Amino acid sequence: MEDINPKNVLEVSNLNTWYGNKKILSDINLNVSHKEIMVIMGHSGSGKSTLLRYILGLEKTKTGLIRLLDKEVSKLNKKDLYKLRKRIGVAFQNGALFSSMTVRENIELPLHENTELDEKTIHIMTRLKLELMQLSGTESLMPSELSGGMLKRAGLARAVIMDPELLFFDEPSAGLDPITSAHLDNLILQLRDALNMSIIVVTHDLESAFKIADRITVLDKGKIIMVGDKGAIKKSRDARIINMLERRAITNNIDADDYLNRLTRN
Amino acid sequence: MASQPSNESILNNLLIRLGIAGIFLYETIRSLFIPPYSLNLLLKQILFVGARSMLVIIIAGLFVGMVVALQFYDTLVRFGSVSLLGSAVGLSLTRELGPVLTALMVIGRTGSAMCAEIGIMRIENQIDALECMAIDPYRFLISPRILAGVLCVPILTAIFIVVGIFGGYFVGVILFDLSAGSYFQNMNDTVLSRDLLMGFIKSIVFGLLIVWISCEKGFNLHLDKNGAYGSEGVSRITTEAVVIASIAILFSDYLLSALIL
What is the helix (H) or strand (E) element at residue A169, kind and residue range? Predict the structure, then answer.
């Protein structure tokens, strides 16, 4: 179990989760400190997004502890959970923008709902964030008129509009070309340096992970197999990490008889 | 071969579903009292549920009124009581046909759209995004729709009834030469405030039921373990919402009639 440190913005200890009888996450222990960029990596189905949902309080934990910005997530009532969520930002994989609202309305939404700022200030803050994301001029466009990269950047603009202390970014580079993906990586670094944010990025993109991460957590089949800085990950002798770094497909040694038996079994 | 679910597990699932729907309604009603209150969100839903349903309600009301008058005329002629046509049309429209048919039209036009829209919001993480932005999805998405349903369905029902009465007037008075005075006087004598109240209460209950069932199906799409989660899931729950809401309307219509009569 990792040490509890008061400077940590996130502490997860002994988290176990189930879906029905199937165990999804096993003994997850994870710390993220202030101004750190932590990348959670793993192949599809390794439990990255599930872990994110538990950290955000979108799913309730029955075992283990999740402490987010010094609050124990599972013990918060709805009102306190919302209070905590005003201090974090979440950028979803597909942007999760509301299709019936313009880009500006989408980005302004948290300010309208959670603050009592006047319209003018809200407009200025929105323009600032749009400029930071290089989305100036898209204010009046509908989400359906944006490209994949623009959707992600608009989602990111909405996630940081309240200047959160901690930002979560789910799969920033999924489905993007290398240039747009590199641009998003630069944005993430810029956000940490300019706005002093701690950032947790969930990805399976190696290049992006090694570019932005201070530390990397590698998940496999719902278990953390390693947490370390980029150098430690690269030096790891764990076969699963080597496979991942060398982009080697996971192959099973197939017993021909057993294989045939399984296929022909009633 | 896949084993058939036992009666016990079907009952268990049904009770769980009812429990989930009950919690959904509780959360929605609770969220009605949580500020900030947004008039914009409510007006947008009133436009969608009410104003944009008007044309279809007027057309349906007109033809229903005409066909009811035609059927009653044919029956009343056999008993030599054609003068009762106004009463028959008025009573059947205010007590039964107006509220029920308006509700069924609103399910088809609005309930299905609400269910699909909220279901898509669920699969595209928009509802999770609201939660993560500290915006209560019940307050932001559901309560304006519930309020719009409860406000608009009675108004649409009233429009349906009025248009239906004039549809009946067209058939009875213009096509079959019944006296206009007799048509309206008879209706005025027979349709009591109790009948209007019955129609009004029914339409409020139906408005609540339509939005509750339609939104709940979409909102809790991820909890439904019967099938696919993506576009197929949205299509399935939309069909289910329409079927369940229609049955709920007919069932509650009987219950309310039995209680009020």
Answer: strand A166-170
